[in-house]
Design goal:
The protein has 404 residues and is of the alpha/beta class. It folds into two domains: 211 residues, Rossmann fold, CATH 3.40.50; 116 residues, Aspartate Aminotransferase, domain 1, CATH 3.90.1150.140. It is built from 14 helices and twelve strands. A seven-stranded mixed β-sheet has the order 3-4-2-1-5-6-9, sandwiched between helices. It has a three-stranded antiparallel β-sheet with strand order 10-12-11. Helix 6 packs across helix 7, helix 10 crosses helix 13 and helix 12 runs antiparallel to helix 13. The N and C termini lie far apart (57 Å). The N terminus is likely disordered.
């Protein structure tokens, strides 16, 4: 009877294997740096005291927080955590974040978006290696790469090893779009000389920063597996986790390099609505006029729908705004930075006295493009000027690329 039961179970197992074969997608799914680190037994950080720079996006493919994975391992000693803008849980939208303690591990969390943006000597005293695991979104002025650059600088100054657990660029790794950041305009929203859309992973950027900033740094990048530059986020099989409170979808991440440029001016980019970066408006915009002007430009992969909305936070809070819903119709054809420049040019043309554009330069970072915009140049002329220096950047970045 026992032998018969075993034979029956074996037959059932074979039937299930035949009926439900291993998915080709499972074999090709993207593994991020933390997945590789775990699979390989933490070999590059074994027996080291770790300071982990992370937030809620630092997750394994199965959804386990990197902090807990390292904390639970007997191969490493996770001693403290560092958090970027928006805090360790990614929920705060404020300019000054205090230090705290991680409820899951009980470890101290040092904020790198408060009294300091760079780990101090005191914070690093008991650390051998800094590990970075945060999901970036491929835009120069998104500050997680600035946090990485500051931490790399601190690691070089204090003789600490630096390990980057790489992650895919949600915007892909092929398309690059300017304008370039002017020399001398470096800031926390423009930490290194990059175009607005750089097409690099955080690991690739780390290699570039070490070389171009001439950092004496022991850097190791744990690369992703099964990721190619042509891949969209949908190709990875990875779960999308909102990397910040107002970055709530892959669509919004794709819009951000263009629409995000506008948020230092007096237009709402949808903060305080359910669809940040998908809508643009102000009380002085006539929505049908604005949408019609933008649609007549016939920008690739996008349409503009006239709308009215009322943000409950941020710019024009509780004010009735006219504007547009930016609808991507073809993700492959859509060019976010060119679209953002077209919107800026249209604002300048139709609302020259209402649109307060002086602070547009803050994220744009390029005086030449700003001067052209001020002169009333059309979007095509702005895009052409914005591409100056991009081909040189692509040559610069070539030596740091880790993926085909």
């Amino acid at each position: 009877m026992k032998l018969f039961s075993m034979m029956l179970l074996s037959a059932l197992f074979l039937t299930l294997v035949i009926a439900f074969p291993a998915s080709a997608d499972d074999e090709r799914h993207t593994l991020t740096g933390i997945d590789i680190l775990v699979r390989d037994g933490f070999d590059v950080v074994t027996n080291q005291r770790i300071g982990l720079i992370t937030n809620h996006t630092g997750l394994t493919r199965e959804g386990r927080p990197t902090a807990q994975v390292l904390h639970n391992s007997n191969r490493v000693d996770l001693v403290l955590l560092f958090s970027p803008e928006h805090g360790i849980a990614g929920k705060l939208d404020q300019s000054d974040i205090a230090h705290g303690r991680d409820p899951a591990t009980g470890l101290p969390v040092y904020s790198l978006y408060g009294e300091t943006r760079r780990p101090t000597a005191e914070m690093l005293a008991g650390v051998d290696t800094l590990v970075f695991d945060i999901q970036d979104i491929g835009t120069r002025f998104y500050t997680y790469i600035s946090t990485m650059g500051e931490a790399m600088t601190a690691a070089a100054e204090h003789g600490k090893k630096f390990v980057v657990l790489d992650r895919p660029n949600p915007l892909g790794g092929i398309k690059v779009a300017g304008p370039m950041l002017d020399a001398g305009k470096e800031s926390f929203v423009g930490w290194h000389t990059l175009p607005v859309r750089h097409g690099m992973t955080i690991g690739e950027l780390a290699k570039m920063i070490r070389a171009e900033r001439e950092l004496d740094l022991d850097l190791q990048v744990i690369t992703c597996e099964n990721w190619q530059r042509k891949h969209t986020w949908a190709d990875t099989g990875l779960t999308w986790v909102n990397p910040s409170p107002n970055m709530r979808s892959v669509t919004q991440a794709l819009l951000y390099p263009g629409v995000g440029l506008l948020e230092t001016t007096n237009v709402s980019v949808g903060r305080g609505t359910d669809t940040p970066f998908e809508v643009i408006g102000a009380p002085w915009i006539e929505q049908r006029e604005f949408a019609g002007a933008l649609n007549r430009l016939k920008l690739p992969g996008v349409k503009f729908v006239p709308i009215r909305f009322m943000p409950d936070a941020s710019t024009h809070k509780d004010q009735d705004c006219g504007g547009v819903n930016v609808v991507i119709t073809d993700h492959d054809a859509f060019e976010p930075v060119a679209t953002g420049l077209a919107i800026a040019s249209t604002l300048r043309t139709f609302y020259p006295d209402d649109w307060q554009r002086e602070r547009y330069i803050r994220l744009l970072g390029n005086d030449g493009v700003m001067r052209k915009l001020d002169s009333g140049a059309g979007w095509a002329e702005l895009v052409e000027l914005a591409e100056r220096g991009v081909s040189d950047f692509e040559k610069r970045r070539a030596k740091y690329l880790l993926y085909e």
